């Protein structure tokens, strides 16, 4: 049962590393890279794809090296277990030179919004990114931001464009009021980032727990395991199976 789950954890580790780079390009790596016979001179594109493949491979092996040393307790309801998991993921990111989830979100926002001309589409895109990332707006800040935009556009009597310096200054002033009302300070951003990482770590542990239970349930249906008692997920030590 544990072996079935550990294979899923390894699969997730590979996804964790691969999602940081343009993994979709690695699917196009020619089979000849793995053949023993002599190959024709590689093209520049081949070299690029080969480089991407080895980069993903190295990052994955780095992640495995950390996972073999650090203990992960699959208990999303235990704050200490969540904090330890977050610490392990941070170590993997630092050693493998990967983005944190906050950095990935920032990068996504930057790339998705750089060509958006108006403020409303910008905010709608931020909302879309938030939903796709599974993030909740517990403070209701998003609705306040749209209300602020409505107020500014009503004052301007036209849609607010992002290159409108005067209009954007008005909007930023309204956002500052919202931040003050919600008690959000720029100097506290590192704390908010840490809270986000812990929230994401808890969600990932919940997913790992679900996968572990599913793997054990599936294996228990096999004849040779039908009388075997399921172990407590919290007792699993994945280091023994990597």
UniProtKB/TrEMBL annotation:
<keyword id="KW-0175">Coiled coil</keyword>
<dbReference type="InterPro" id="IPR031432">
    <property type="entry name" value="MGP1"/>
</dbReference>
<protein>
    <recommendedName>
        <fullName>ATP synthase 24 kDa subunit, mitochondrial</fullName>
    </recommendedName>
</protein>
<dbReference type="Pfam" id="PF15704">
    <property type="entry name" value="Mt_ATP_synt"/>
</dbReference>
<dbReference type="GO" id="GO:0009555">
    <property type="term" value="P:pollen development"/>
</dbReference>
<feature type="coiled-coil region">
    <location>
        <begin position="191"/>
        <end position="222"/>
    </location>
</feature>
